[in-house]
Input
Amino acid sequence: MKNLIKLFFIIVLFIPFFTYSQSDPAMILVKGGSFSMGNPYTDAAKKGDADEKPVHQVKVNDFYIGKYEVSVKEYKDFINDNTFTEFASLRSHKMPATPDTTWMSEHSDTKKHYESTLLKWWGWIDEFPMQYLTWYDAVAYCNWLSSKKGLNKCYTYNETTKSVTCDFTQNGYRLPTESEWEFAAAGGTLTKGYRFSGSNNSADVVWYDETTSYKGPQKIGTKAANELGIYDMTGNVWEWCYDYYSPFYYNNSTKENPINETATGYKVIRGGAWHYRLEYATVYTRDGPEPSYTNYNYGFRLAKNAN
Output
């Protein structure tokens, strides 16, 4: 009996030391350089939309970017931390709901092909990319992770102007800029000029509507990586970037570390997704929904300064 009592007190004494620690996300160092940003193709099948042009020269500094899209498991850790209250008025601090009847009626292909008994992404499986996130959800996650890692947070919400700004001098986690995203997707200084991130053969690197059979996104990192060792930059889920979206921004882009901070009411997403056609899953494809909007194709990956 004495030994049991002693064991009880030992366990109690050590309980405070067993605290949760968020693991470091896998990040890839992208060495900076100059590149031709925009869609270079002129033939009808590959030239893309007008907002992918003109091709223009851009230079970016060194930076880190997520090796993978932020996963369900990583986002669950954020949701389960009730102490984080930043951006509370802009987001919901909970896991997104499963698709409702309205969503299913608007996506008849998914309803037709998806086997509901498998659950998969509707069950929020850990190794799948997190999705159904707004831009505000993504920047909130970045600030949360920065605080967990003892880093300086990048994002600040101004209650007066109802806007979020990013301090790019800080060392915390953030979303990639649009130019950083495209540079990394294209392979950085190791680029081989592929149309998709890592290959010209879409079957090697892209999850889109035909390869997913409309059954949701797929486990992260199961296709081949690109030249830099980054996975799923084209296909699987659209990825939020920091910049405001404008279809005409390439006409006015600065040449060094461009960031569109002119408020337009829309934010950039890149890379295509599991429920989109292949032509939207290139390293050049751009779109710009409202930051408060989302659907079951929207996720993100992290970025961070290299110094």
